[in-house]
Amino acid sequence: MRPIVEFAAVTRAYGARVALDDVHFELLPGELTFLVGPSGAGKTTLLKLINREIRPSSGRLWVAGMPAHQIKASRVAELRRRVGVVFQDYKLLPRLTARENVAFGLQVGDLRVSDEEARDRSLDALEAVGLGDRGDAYPHQLSGGQQQRVAVARAVVGQPQLLIADEPTGNLDQETAWQMMDLFEDIAAWGTAVLVATHNVEIVTRLQRRVLTLVQGRLVRDQPAGWTGRMAWLASS
Amino acid sequence: MAGVLVKGRFPRRRLIQAVATNLVRHLFGGAARSWARNIGSTAPAIGSMTLLLLMSGLVGLTGFALHNLEQVEAGQASLLHVYLRDDAKPPDVASLWRHLLSDARVAGVTYINKDQALERAQRIPGLPQLADATESNPFPASLDVQVKKIDDVAAIDALVRYDVAVDPVYPTSYDKGAYQRIQAVLFGTAVAGFALLGLLGFVAVTVTMNSIKAAIHARRDEITIMQLVGAPRWMVRGPFVVEGAITGAVAGVVAGLITFGLTFAGIAAASGAFTRFAPGVTVTVAAAAAAIVLLVGLGLGSGSSLISLRRHMET
């Protein structure tokens, strides 16, 4: 199976400060992986590299078959259409309804999608995240958890090969956070690679999925699924 | 029984319709809404660009009229009058005529007899009194030589002034300085016009760029989201270029209408004077000038937006 994401000796520096140092790993289709580490460890930098918001200082990085380390600016949009992104602050357009926000994500990526098709597919996506009845609501009329689910619907409506989420539960209560994780597990079950950067230890330990641990820019641990929890020390011993 | 997956074929017409609808919505619909929303910050750009385009239109029409005037004056200045002796023999005159016509620098030669010379003189201020003062006709017959290039008039003059058929006292006449004076005036006018337009252009482009910068700033969240969800670059930048083009088009329409209106009013009020001082400037030319002003407005508006986008929008 070909990896969706492949980091090979990737380093990213901001001036003299090294944010990511010689990182190697691969993500496979259908894999739900957590990215953990203290603040400033390089989690956001790693996600930004995948979405080609920044370039690596050195090393090679392949995302959904595209060489993100060397693609031209004119092809960045093409790469991003293969990656769904969920942000901690949702990044929904306030003047659009939930359905329009989801359809917007679909239609800016592909002009061939008609209004009718966009409406049907966005309603399907909202239905899938449990918001089928709130399609006409504007973001300010939705709770934080609902807004985050709209963001997930927007991220997956174009059927990307990879979904990345930066602290998606950071602004949510524990119950809503678990609902969000159920959603990510469902998405991964359909073959999409899902990479979630989080500080939520309880979720990471209880879900028993693959965990990448970053400390000071270095990937210090890559625990396979099932090797997390109280006995995780066995993996690194 | 296993199902058979049939890949649906989307009708081409509906596909084109969907692409066209999305294009219009993203490029023009969004730009028009944003332009209307930001009309307050766009107003100075419209004002300065209207002024620039109006001045451009009027300076352009003036330049066109001056160019035509120059052509008329050049034609008149390159006319050499070769005055014939009263006692010149017809074979000598005919020989001179043939000699002139065979010269490659000469466009044409016209014989003016004494009666025609008198008639012409009577149309020139001051000369009718001179004609009336004497009983005989004092004006000599002449050969009017139209020289192709004004620079060759002096050479032709030197060639003929000592011919046996030519009056030795007052052999030729042409206005040496007229053309040079017109060219000097034209050059000065052109320099002043371009300097003024350059200054106005700088102001208009700067103000338009700032209004687009304000529009980018007002929509930065939307731009970020569009970029992050994979909107192509033209879809993110296009609406701003259209917005600039709308600003330019509005300024162009206003300036074009004023340019056309002023010219039309001038022609209607004093067509004789207009024909004399602004030769070639007709209603059709004024309409063409207005159309050019509109096109320049469109180009200037969208060009300013492009420059502003390059400077102020991150990729």
As a percent range, the share of strand residues of chain A is 25-35%
Report the count of strand segments of chain B.
4
Stretches of chain A where pLDDT is under 50 for at least 5 consecutive residues are none
Number of strands of chain A: 10
Q: Poorly predicted ranges of chain B (pLDDT <50, ≥5 residues)? A: none
What class would the helix/strand composition of chain A place it in?
Answer: alpha/beta
- Domain module count of chain B: 2
Rg over alpha carbons of chain A: 18 Å
Distance between the termini of chain B: 52 Å
Please write the string of helix (H) and strand (E) elements of chain A: EEEHEEHEHHHEHEHEEH
State the secondary-structure class of chain B: alpha+beta
The helical percent of chain A reads 25-40%
Query: Reading side by side through the largest sheet of chain A, how are the strands ordered?
Result: 6-7-8-3-9-10
Account of the 3D structure:
The complex is a heterodimer of chains A (237) and B (315). Chain A has a domain at 93-159. Chain A is 32% helix and 25% strand. Chain A contains 8 helices and 10 strands. Chain A has a 6-stranded mixed beta sheet. In chain A, helix 3 (98-107) runs parallel beside helix 5 and helix 4 (115-128) crosses helix 5 (144-156). Chain B starts with 11 loop residues before the first helix and ends with a helix. The mean pLDDT of chain B is 84. The longest helix of chain B is centred in the middle third of the chain and has 43 residues, at 176-218. Helix content of chain B is 72%, strand content 6%. Chain B is built from 11 helices and 4 strands. Chain B folds into 2 domains: 27-72 and 180-312, no CATH class; 79-173, Alpha-Beta Plaits, CATH 3.30.70. Chain B has helices at 12-37, 39-77, 90-101, 114-121, 127-133, 153-160, 176-218, 220-228, 233-269, 271-277, 283-312; strands at 79-83, 106-112, 142-147, 172-173. At the A-B interface, helix 2 and helix 3 of A face helix 1 and helix 8 of B.
